[in-house]
């Protein structure tokens, strides 16, 4: 790529969705859960998919990560057309290009932090040094701890290290702080934001929470399976104030009175 280090380069498109739809058929009932989704995700962005429960966030994320297939439309990922990959190429794509962070961490209780992080290498996937990945998430020295010996926030950091260790093109996180208290939620969120900005790691996070969404560079508002607006605020929120912290609900859900991201209607 041309240019020098002092130049701000505009990032390329990593993912592109064109007219993507998903319909689940249950018996004789067709449930159209994603309708005509068009969007692009650029390299190095922290993208947030924001919408209420049942709006189709997880379905959309699963489709982006090749975990579920689209009923119609086209998804491209770099040079690959995800919607045309056969099963074997799709599983390579999931293992090598994608890192996933889960709401309930999904750590294996009988394995140490380092062993959990290294798990993908057991499946033959090339990984970086698990210790380096643990260091990235602030857990140097925790490599021999078992999940039961760590707090929820620390377990989720291991979950993030496990996603990063394959050096993925993109990290997907579905309600990654949904099981954490408010202070830990903020720590984990800021860690993810830092990784995106410092490592230029593309990330897509799903949440139902306006406040958490405000940390993203781009917020995609989804309702009833349709994108109703996209907000861009490059850099995202980085500062917090005391009032905002005391206004959080327990259980990792945060509310900021008077601060609603108002989605605009597509013209
Ligand atoms: P969100 O993550 O925003 O809460 P989901 O993507 O999980 O929403 O679900 C969107 C809609 O799709 C819901 O109405 C849900 O019931 C439906 N749905 C999700 N998965 C399936 C499935 N495997 N079969 C049928 N319907 C599903
Ligand atoms: Mg969901």
Give the SSE layout.
Elements: E1 13-26, E2 29-42, E3 46-50, H1 57-64, E4 72-77, E5 80-81, H2 87-97, E6 98-101, H3 113-117, H4 119-122, H5 130-136, H6 152-164, E7 170-174, H7 182-199, E8 202-207, H8 210-213, E9 218-223, E10 226-232, H9 242-246
Parallel strand pairs: 3-8, 3-9, 6-7, 7-8
Antiparallel strand pairs: 1-2, 1-4, 4-5, 9-10
Helix pairs in contact: 5-6, 6-7
The structure holds adenosine-5'-diphosphate and magnesium ion.
Question: Which descriptors would you attach to this protein?
Answer:
267 residues, alpha/beta, Rossmann fold, 6-stranded mixed β-sheet, 4-stranded antiparallel β-sheet, 10 strands, 26% strand, globular, binds adenosine-5'-diphosphate, binds magnesium ion
What letter string, H or E per element, gives the SSE order? EEEHEEHEHHHHEHEHEEH
Question: Looking at the structure, what is the overall shape?
Answer: globular
Classify the secondary structure makeup into a structural class. alpha/beta
Widest sheet, order of strands: 6-7-8-3-9-10
Report the total helices. Answer: 9
**Percentage of residues assigned to helices:** 25-40%
Measured by DSSP, the beta-strand proportion falls in 25-35%
Head-to-tail CA distance between termini? 35 Å
Brief summary:
It contains 9 helices and 10 strands.
Give a description of the structure.
It is a single chain. The chain has about 270 residues and is an alpha/beta fold. It has a domain of about 130 residues: Rossmann fold. Helix content is about 30%, strand content about 25%. The strands form two sheets. A six-stranded mixed β-sheet has the order 6-7-8-3-9-10. Strands 2-1-4-5 form a four-stranded antiparallel β-sheet, with helices on one face. The longest helix is centred in the last third of the chain and has 18 residues. The chain is globular and about 50 Å long. The chain starts with 12 loop residues before the first strand and ends in a 21-residue tail after the last helix. The structure holds adenosine-5'-diphosphate and magnesium ion. Magnesium ion binds next to helix 1. Magnesium ion (MG) binds next to helix 1.
């Amino acid at each position: 790529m041309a240019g020098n280090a002092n130049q701000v380069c505009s990032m390329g498109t990593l993912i592109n969705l064109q007219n993507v739809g998903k319909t689940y058929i249950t018996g004789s009932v067709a449930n159209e859960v994603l309708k005509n989704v068009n969007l692009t995700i650029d390299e190095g962005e922290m993208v947030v998919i924001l919408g209420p429960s049942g709006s189709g966030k997880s379905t959309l994320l699963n489709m982006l990560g090749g975990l579920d297939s689209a009923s119609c439309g086209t998804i491209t990922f770099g040079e690959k057309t995800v919607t045309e990959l056969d099963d074997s190429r799709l599983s390579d794509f999931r293992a090598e290009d994608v890192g996933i962070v889960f709401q309930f961490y999904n750590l294996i209780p009988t394995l140490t932090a380092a062993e959990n992080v290294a798990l993908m290498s057991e499946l033959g996937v090339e990984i970086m040094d698990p210790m380096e990945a643990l260091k990235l998430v602030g857990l140097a020295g925790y490599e021999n701890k078992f999940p039961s010996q760590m707090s929820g926030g620390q377990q989720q950091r291991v979950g993030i290290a496990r996603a990063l260790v394959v050096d993925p093109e993109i990290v997907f996180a579905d309600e990654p702080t949904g099981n954490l208290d408010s202070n830990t939620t903020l720590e984990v969120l800021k860690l993810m934001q830092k990784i995106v900005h410092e490592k230029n790691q593309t990330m897509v996070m799903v949440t139902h929470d306006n406040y958490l969404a405000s940390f993203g560079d781009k917020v995609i508002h989804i309702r009833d399976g349709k994108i109703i607006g996209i907000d861009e605020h490059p850099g995202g929120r980085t500062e917090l104030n005391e009032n905002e912290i005391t206004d959080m609900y327990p259980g990792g859900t945060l509310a900021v009175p008077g601060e609603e991201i108002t989605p605009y209607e597509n013209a």
